[in-house]
Hints:
The complex is a heterodimer of chains A (332) and B (314). Chain A has 332 residues and is of the alpha/beta class. In chain A, 32% of the residues lie in helices and 20% in strands. Chain A folds into two domains: 2-168 and 251-331, TIM Barrel; 178-244, no CATH class. In chain A, α1 (10-18) packs parallel to α9. Chain B has one domain (12-176, 233-288): Alpha-Beta Barrel (TIM Barrel). In chain B, 31% of the residues lie in helices and 20% in strands. In chain B, α3 crosses α4 and α9 (259-271) packs antiparallel against α10. The two termini of chain B are 36 Å apart. Chains A and B meet through α4, α5, α7, β10 and β11 of A and α3, α4, α5, α6 and β7 of B.
Amino acid sequence: MELVCPAGNLPSLKAAIDYGANAVYIGFKDATNARHFAGLNFNDKSAQAGISYAKERGVKVFAAINTYAQGGEFIKWQNAVDRAADLSIDALILADIGVMDYACEKHPNLRLHLSVQASATNPDALNFYYRNFNIQRAVLPRVLSLKQVEQVAQVSPVPLEVFGFGSLCVMVEGRCLLSSYATGMSPNTYGACSPGSAVKWQEKPNDVLETRLNNVLIDRFEKGEKAGYPTLCKGRFEVNNNTYYAIEEPTSLNTLSILPELFNMGVAAIKVEGRQRSPAYVAQVTNIMRHAIDSVKSNPQKYQTKHEWMDELQKVSEGHQTTLGAYHRPWQ
Amino acid sequence: MKNHTASTTQPKLSLGPIQYFWPKAQVLHFYQQVAESAIDTVYLGEVVCSKRLEMNFDDWLNVGRQLSAKGKSVVLSSMTLIEAGSELSRMRRVCEQEEFCVEANDFGAIEILAQNNKKFITGAAINIYNERTLKLLHQQGMKRWNLSVELGKEHLSKMQQHGPAEVETEVLVWGRLPLAYAARCFTARAHNLPKDKCQFKCIEDPDGLVMKTREQQDFLCLNGIQTQSALTCNLLPEINVMKSLGVNMLRISPQSEHTFEVIEAFAQALKSPEKINAINTEIQHHAPTGLCDGYWFGQPGMNLSNRISPNSQS
């Protein structure tokens, strides 16, 4: 079971590798990847440096080109694929079948992974991508229960990668348009959810803080409440006259407690979310996940989640809390 | 390559699948009225939650047969988010029946249909963002596609110029926008119930459950595991633009009230383009909350333009 870690820039890439990632994933500085944030991502030079650093240490580098190429601008995604191929990347992480088709035609030997943004939750969907584009691995959306992951794993035509830690998407990835409904920019089209350019933090009387997304009030924090980034699905709204986290609380996914089950069902890789996070976050999460996975691999029956791992991960989590998300049926 | 500059298309009207959980009697009554309406093509079936079993598979087939007998073109829609084994079986059953054409709402359905050499239609939740994807799915058997609700006329125009000419295009012109799907049931959550013991609470909300901001802005609409826009998308003033872009089908999404007034309004607007602005003034009253049309103009989906139809006199 591989550990796949996020690298939003060169220092994060090095941190992930130094702390034990088996693979890192990167994106280019444009809308072709799903973490299209200012100041983040790689140009050819930094990508080259990162790939050299990884290769010298036996670590793989994947390139996420996992947004949807929009009519008339296909050339941008085409160029990203060509650049990644020129850099001798180990695999492309793709979501758009048009882009997959191009990659297969132009670079038939390039290894393709199916991005979580392709939204494949079942064996028939996985067969579609395998049959047409010979994908070699698929990242599952964070909507399946542990039992459902196992059922998919038993018949999947390709090895599976699942999310192990990081910010939690509540909606099935690749089919969530909430962000563009409010801001005009979505993960599919623009490569960002609830983008920073649409965010406003407004101080109000009595130390009240409001967070807005393109002027839509996402949350309001009273004095003493810890304010969080206004991710659209993690604010407090009013339904039937009750104000609460109608979709989800600010929380991160944490699978430490189910790693042995994931290992036993033959999951090929555990993915850590967070290319937008700091090198310190990457170092810390990679370190803990490395120790946990090593412990599972040496003896899955005897594996125990350590309190200090949980505590450390909680500190770097959204809202300082974690959840098993959809893996755990009652969460649904 | 398509060429729509010389002539314009006369689009037909379609009725999308019911997104909500309605009692069986209401569903049956609804489709009796559909049979007498100006709708050309009807999409049938449960697309949101597999636990909604007021109508079983045979009930849907029967409705389909009755509508066919009345001259409607009938399509069975497959579920959008497939998680449980039972959902997979149901999707396969929809795709493998021979009586009606299928709208695929997941790539799993496309796989089954393509493997069985069946022509199919793709719903808006199938991500088609470029002409290369259009061509590819056409080769797999796609005969009609729905534009993603987050894409607008500029994108559509580029795709129409370079997409395969034989493929028909459909656009959602009226209804709350389907924006997201999740494992979690937000209606059950609103009632403090776990999904596995949801008590089918969504049957109490025939148009979903509006989620407001703390400033009372109607923002989203919770419909079980689906999240919709609270605002109703209305593209009636854009009918002439759609004609010039070669859109073949205009989709109306069912709501618990006024669906037939909306259908009639679109039918009139297609017949009498000079009346579009007057009809548009009337149709606004048929939305459960306010209107939006931002996506079509390349803006945030919740925006509403104040555009007047260019080829219409009010």
